[in-house]
Each structure stands twice: as structure tokens, then as C-alpha cells.
């Protein structure tokens, strides 16, 4: 019955290879139109349901350890995917297709994928960070997907990205979190931040990791 049957969601080959090319040359890449609109709507309504049911954690009120740990850098609430809905499974299937395309182009040996919903309240933000800390070779490529329709520039919440860990100049790009837009970043290379959102902001963030045995041989052939 769902409009996003798992097997119906396939990636457009050309758009995917353009995206992965830009990831390879630039360290990050943005694409619109790869996620089917019905899937984006389904994921947003799932996230709204989780919010209403009080099933997100770290909602910015300082009650749990996770929030105390990063409360200064992030004001948002999350929920890990458990693959329990058709929308999650369809998204994971698309992520798997992206993984194949990235591995083919960059030889990164991406292996598994973890991902969470993120809900930023009004005033929510995420300070500048790298998704993978130096020395911890875990997260190699980051994927962010945006879910909110009609996001305007006045709504804030831009994702600012820099081109290298030691780049403290002006951001390379400020990405407006439009519904259906996805962003890929090399997790160890691209610092990024989420500017304060002026309306509730809904996203998915996921990370591909390498498996243990290849974790010390990260060498994008470029
Ligand atoms: O919400 C976003 O745009 C980015 C989220 C992010 O950077 C993260 O979860 O690591
Ligand atoms: Fe991040």
C-alpha cells in the first residue's frame, strides 16, 4: 500500500554518479531529486509521529546523559533507525545503492550504515564538528537528508561546510535544508555546522563505516 515500496526506490544512475564525482573532488556534494517525494513525506510523517509519542531522546532539556555530553554543541533530539517501517527500509535501500556507487568510484570499502532521525526545535543548532574524530576510523562518509517542505532562507538552519579540518575561513558552502535534498561528506575531512533554525527542522543523518579489517587502510584513490 505504501507509495515507496522498497523495490520501487532505485537511484538515478547519472545523478548518482555526478553526486559521487563531486564527493570525490570536493569532499562534499549536494543533490536534489534523488529521494522520491513520497518517501520524503513518509519519513517526515514517521518522525512527526515519533516526536508526538515522545520517542526522541536528547530534546534539549538536559535530562539525559547524551544531552549533557553534547548539549553545548547540539540542540536537537534524535532517534536511531530500527528498520521497522517501510519508509525506513526504503531509505536504507537507497543508502545501500549510494554505498555501492561510492565504493565503485572511491574504493573506500564502505561497509555498514547507521542512521538517525534528527529533530531540531526552534532555536536548535549543531555547532561545528567533524563526524569522525581523528584516530577513530569509524565513520567515513556522512549522508544527510532533509525532510521539511517549503524551507525558505528566512527559516535559517543552513548547513555550513568547510573544505578541510584546518579550514577556518569562510564556509565553502551554506546549504539550505530543502525537502528531498541530500548531502554527502567525507566524515574525516569536512567540518560542518547547523545554524540555528527558526522553525522546527527535520533531517536524517547517517554514516557509512568501514569494517574493522580495512579500517586502517582508508585511501581514496584520487
Ligand atoms: O542536520 C544537519 O544538517 C546535519 C546533522 C549533522 O551534522 C550530524 O548529525 O552529524
Ligand atoms: Fe555532522
UniProtKB/TrEMBL annotation:
Its cofactor is L-ascorbate. Transmembrane segments: none annotated. Keywords: Dioxygenase, Iron, Metal-binding, Oxidoreductase, Vitamin C. The keyword Oxidoreductase applies. Residues 106-210 form the Fe2OG dioxygenase domain. The keyword Ribonucleoprotein does not apply. InterPro entries: HIF_prolyl_hydroxylases (IPR051559), Oxoglu/Fe-dep_dioxygenase_dom (IPR005123), Pro_4_hyd_alph (IPR006620), Pro_4_hyd_alph_FE2OG_OXY (IPR044862). It comes from the Bacteria. This is SM-20-related protein. The lineage of its organism: Bacteria, Pseudomonadati, Pseudomonadota, Alphaproteobacteria, Hyphomicrobiales.
Amino acid at each position: 500500500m505504501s507509495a515507496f515500496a522498497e523495490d520501487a526506490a532505485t537511484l538515478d544512475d547519472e545523478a548518482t554518479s555526478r553526486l559521487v564525482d563531486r564527493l570525490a573532488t570536493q569532499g562534499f556534494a549536494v543533490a536534489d531529486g534523488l529521494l522520491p517525494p513520497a518517501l520524503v513525506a513518509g519519513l517526515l510523517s514517521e518522525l512527526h509521529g515519533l516526536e508526538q509519542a515522545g520517542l526522541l531522546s536528547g530534546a534539549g532539556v538536559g535530562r539525559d546523559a547524551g544531552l549533557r555530553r553534547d548539549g553545548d554543541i547540539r540542540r536537537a533530539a534524535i532517534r536511531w533507525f530500527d528498520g521497522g517501517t517501510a519508509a525506513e527500509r526504503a531509505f536504507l535501500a537507497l543508502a545501500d545503492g549510494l554505498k555501492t556507487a561510492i565504493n565503485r568510484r572511491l574504493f573506500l570499502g564502505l561497509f555498514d550504515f547507521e542512521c538517525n532521525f534528527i529533530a531540531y526545535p526552534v532555536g536548535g543548532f549543531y555547532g561545528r564538528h567533524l563526524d569522525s574524530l581523528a584516530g577513530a576510523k569509524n565513520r567515513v562518509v556522512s549522508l544527510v537528508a532533509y525532510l521539511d517542505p517549503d524551507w525558505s532562507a528566512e527559516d535559517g538552519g543552513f548547513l555550513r561546510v568547510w573544505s578541510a579540518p584546518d579550514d577556518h575561513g569562510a564556509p565553502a558552502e551554506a546549504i539550505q535544508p530543502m525537502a528531498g535534498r541530500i548531502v554527502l561528506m567525507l566524515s574525516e575531512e569536512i567540518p560542518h555546522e547547523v545554524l540555528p533554525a527558526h522553525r522546527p527542522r527535520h533531517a536524517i543523518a547517517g554514516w557509512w563505516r568501514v569494517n574493522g579489517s580495512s579500517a586502517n587502510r582508508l585511501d581514496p584513490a584520487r
